Each structure stands twice: as C-alpha cells, then as structure tokens.
Amino acid sequence: MNTLDGTNIPVHEPERQFYYIEKAKKYVAKKAKEIGRDLTFTVTTFGCQMNARDSEKLVGILEQIGYVEEADEEKADFVIYNTCTVRENANQRVYGRLGQLGHIKKSKPHMMIGLCGCMMQEPEVVEKLKKSYRFVDLIFGTHNIYKFAELIATRFESNRMVIDIWKDTDQIVEDLPSERKFAFKSGVNIMFGCNNFCSYCIVPYVRGRERSRNPKDILREIEKLVADGVVEIMLLGQNVNSYGKNLEHPITFAQLLQEIEKIEGLERIRFMTSHPKDLSDELIEVMKHSDKICKHLHLPVQSGSSRILEKMNRRYTKEQYLELVNKIKTAVPDISLTTDIIVGFPGETEEDFLETMDVVKQVRYDSAFTFIYSKRTGTPAAAMDDQVPADVIKDRFDRLLKEVQSISAEVCSVHTGTTQKALIESVNDHDASLVTGRLSNNILVHLPGDASYIGQIVDVHLKECHGFYYTGEISR
Ligand code: SAH
Ligand code: SF4
Ligand code: F3S
C-alpha cells in the first residue's frame, strides 16, 4: 500500500509489524523528549500460563519500541492489563483496579491504559468499557496481540480510544520479538484455542478454535531459546494431547515431544494442560522412557461423578479417569499428579460431591486447584436450571480443600531424605541466604545459596518436608 508520505506499508506479517515497531519507536522517542525522560510501562497479567506467555510477547514489543519497564503501576506511563475471564471474580478484579487507574490518569494526562486478553473477547465487556471507562486508550483481544505495535502507532496518531477485537482467526504469526521473565526457563506455545467446549467453560469462546503451530517453528523457537541459555521449557496449550491433529501433515503430541527431546542442551520439558480424554498410551510410553520430560502431569478431573462429567461434556467417566491414572502410575511410578476440580457445578448433589472426594482419596494428588463453579454467560451450563446454593457449595469446598491439603502434605513428604535434581529459580523472597529450586515433580525446595546459583541444575538433599515444599542442601 502506498501512503501519502511515500512509504510502503508491508502487507505480510511479521514484516508489517516490524514496520510499525519502527513507526511507534519514533512516537515514543518524541514523547520521551517532550517529558525529558524515558517512557515506562507495566504489563499486569491475570489468568493462566497462556496469558503469561502472551504478556512476554507484549513486553518484547514494548521494549523494541523504546519503553522501559517500571515495576510500580502507579508510576508507569503505559499500563497494560492482560485479562482473564475464566471465572467471574477475575473480571471483578480488573474493574476494581481499572477504577484506581482512572484516578491516577487524571493527574497524569499523557498516561496510556491498554486492555487485552480474554475478557476483551466478550462484547458486553467492551460495551461496558466504552460506556463507563472512557479513559482507556487501547482495547484489543486474544487473536491480534501480534498487532500490538500497529495498534500503539494508531493510538499515537488518532488520540481516540482504539478498539480492535477479532472474533476468531486461523492465523499464527511467527518470529515477532518476545521477552522472557526468566533467563533459564520459558513457556512455548504449541497450540492456541480450544475445541472441547466443556459446558462450564468460556475459554473456547474467547480463545477461538484449536490451531497447532507447525512443529518446525516450535523446534526452531526452542533451539533458539536453548542457545540463549534456557534449560527448561513448558509447552503450552489448552489441550496439548490433541496437538497436531489439524496440521497439514498431522503429528501427535508424543511425536513432537520426542523431537524436542533431541535438542541438545535442553534439560527439562514440561507441558500443560492435558485433557484426560486425549491422553494416549503413546504419550505414557514416551514419558516412561524420557530423560527430559519432568515427572509431573497436570490432569484436570473437574469432578469425580460420571453423571456430572457428562453434563460438563468432559467425555470420560470416573472409571476411565481412574484407569488412566493407574496406567500412568504403573508406567512412571514416581510421577507427581496434580489436578483442577470444580465444586458446585449445576445439579451437583451430595452423592456427586462424595464421588469427587473419592477420586481425590484414590489418586492422592500432589496438589489440586479447587474452584467454586462460576456461571459464565453464553456457556451451556449457565442455562442449566439447578444451580447449587452458595452455602452448600461453600461447605463442600471447605471439606474438599481440607482433604486435598492433608493428602498433599502426606504425598509431598515421601521424598524426605532423598537427593534430587533441582533447577534453582530465585533467591528466596523471605530469606536472602536461601535460594528456591524446583524439582522435576514441580515441588519447591529452599536451600542455602546465592544469586549465582540461579539457572543451574543441582543435586539437592531433601532434609525436611513442610507440607508442600522442602528445605534441603546441596549434596556434594
Ligand atoms: N484447558 C484446561 C483448563 C483451562 S481453565 C483443561 O481443560 O484442563 C483452568 C481451570 O479453570 C479448569 O481446569 C477448571 O477447573 C476451571 N474453570 C474453568 N471454567 C470454570 C468455571 N466456569 N467455574 C469454575 N472453574 C472453572
Ligand atoms: Fe475449557 Fe474444557 Fe477447553 Fe479446558 S478443555 S479450556 S476446560 S473447554
Ligand atoms: Fe483465563 Fe484466558 Fe487463560 S480466560 S484461564 S487467561 S485462556
């Protein structure tokens, strides 16, 4: 396209975005000159690992165009909220904090506020923002975050609220800049979207249909990360077990893992999330023989009642789930299993709940995320008429949490006295003479050390278990 100033705007991606990065850079530099210092930004992430990874992409673009990261949201010139809408309370938190930002902006007119992520894919949310939060500068969704530089440039040029939301996309744009929160580990998207439509869940509506990245692109990204010092990767997708099914040359998730395993210098491979209905024998076999795949599987059960599971559209029964767990435990005896559980799905009776408790007792999870069912407008479950009263849910939730916690303390402590490899991730928040490492099974251990240990994999003697973490020392 020819523009008035004679430049050609590239039509194809990622070239188009590199063009806009340069353009936005000029606007940022101009503004910085005006105010006499660098412009700063804060990206605040709500929600899951997928959002966290998206935020790293936003940070990558912001840094390319000349913004400098600022830890304190109140001081930043550009505040971005990458939002989540999986449960209602996630939305409430965003509105609350946005109100505060509005006040800050009144005394700092050049400040910009950007909103993106899953909440923005809901038309009611955008309507509400347009009506009651006029001070927001930029609103975009989950499908076009790669256009961030272009949207920023547009905002600088228009001086009005810029809104760009796509309903869905089949596009995956590769090779854009991205930052990493940690030097030694990184999330890697292997697929986007979800096709499962569990009846309570809003994710398929806000993240669109399932799209797998090309294996070559994934391998290339990981190779680059490893060359840059990364030793652990987390493969990300809403349902990694169905990876590759809709590619032009289909490959399975297990095959992808085997390819990734060959990358020299990569030490640890994690992945999430696994949907039980798609977890194959092939994957169990690959995990069993792998040196790099971590001994941890997050396998959300959601409910232990086959009747509720059917209403949830999970497409497995309690028995099938337990059989799968047995198969995995037999093949990989030291595996750590974690899960997600929803309490109070419409129509859940005390008997249904006791089935969930039974699964928890049988599987003995290392840890479990427990959620109170949240009604999401537009999902099939929201229209189900037998919603469970709040006090009943609360009582069940408390009982479940107690059970989960007491089992996880027991399960966690079985490694006491052993020596295991830990990847040292950080200096301990509360005690600077300690560092914190992560074991293959995802359990944390605190041990004496300093910042020079960060990023190293060391042998740690696990001295004492404190419920869900260990204290230990380097074993020499
Ligand atoms: N794709 C993943 C989960 C993504 S959402 C999977 O299928 O396992 C993360 C968790 O949030 C879900 O596992 C579920 O336990 C919970 N969740 C999703 N929708 C919810 C709702 N409406 N109310 C309460 N919890 C919900
Ligand atoms: Fe939601 Fe189910 Fe998809 Fe997970 S698999 S994101 S719970 S619809
Ligand atoms: Fe939330 Fe979106 Fe993740 S709704 S859980 S941030 S996919």
Describe the structure in brief.
With 476 residues, the chain is α/β, with parallel strands linked by helices. It is 36% helix and 20% strand.
Give the low-pLDDT segments. none
- The neighbouring-strand order within the major sheet is 2-1-3-4-5-6
Largest sheet: 6 strands, parallel
Number of strands: 19
Gross geometry: globular
Beta content: 15-25%
Q: What is the CA-atom radius of gyration, in angstroms? A: 23 Å
Mean pLDDT: 95
Helix content: 25-40%
Termini separation: 64 Å
Helix/sheet category: alpha/beta
Distinct ligands, ions and cofactors found in the model: S-adenosyl-L-homocysteine, iron/sulfur cluster, FE3-S4 cluster
| Number of discrete helical segments | 13
Characterization of this structure:
This protein has helices at residues 15-35, 49-64, 88-106, 123-132, 148-158, 203-207, 215-227, 253-261, 281-289, 306-311, 318-331, 350-363, 390-412; strands at residues 40-45, 68-69, 78-83, 112-117, 138-140, 162-164, 185-189, 191-192, 211-212, 232-236, 268-272, 296-298, 336-343, 367-372, 419-427, 434-439, 444-448, 457-465, 469-474. With 476 residues, the protein is of the alpha/beta class. The strands form five sheets. Strands 2-1-3-4-5-6 form a six-stranded parallel beta sheet, with helices on both faces. A hairpin with a 6-residue loop joins strand 15 and strand 16. The chain starts with 14 loop residues before the first helix and ends with a strand. Bound molecules: S-adenosyl-L-homocysteine, iron/sulfur cluster and FE3-S4 cluster (F3S). S-adenosyl-L-homocysteine is lined by residues 86-87, 200-201, 203, 238-239, 273, 275, 300, 302, 340, 342, 371, 373-374, 376.
